[in-house]
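thought: fold this chain, then report.
action: predict
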Amino acid sequence: MLSAIIWSIKRKFPEVRNISTDDLQSKLERSKANDDFQVLLIDSRKKDEFDVSHLHQAKFLDFKSETTRIKEFLDTNLFESDNTKTEIVCYCSLGYRSSVLAQKISDILKEDSKCGTIEVYNLEGSIFKWANEDKLLTNENKDAIEYVHPFSTLWGFLGLNFSKWNWEGQR
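observation:
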């Protein structure tokens, strides 16, 4: 079912570039080792979902944010070095909300000539796929955890292993 959802989201957002969970993990490892490479991870879910768990080092930005708020967020979180290559990866539960945000960010960056080299991606399968593959998740205290807020019962059943469900962040 998850692959059908991913396919559907890609069709709905043909201009949004996608990155696999394995490619993202490689890029995150590369960014730890290199000062000249930055991955800005953006969690576009609701704040209560983010608080339960998120990808390590992710920043929260609601996918419904207005252009002004997105610009403020980017100004605060992007390096201002000409020597630093930056890639932005947005994610949510399955990829719809993060595709919306990735498209907004891409449109904003196209207008800003100094940000022309920044690549923006949607994480394919988003946090559900990441969690199902047992990749690193953390909570608001930076503790390593293994569960995700399933957004809703329906979406949880469609994409998240039941053993990974957690509504409140308590286990």
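thought: worth noting. Strands lie at 17-19, 37-43, 54-55, 59-60, 85-91, 119-123, 137-138, 144-145.
final: tokens above.
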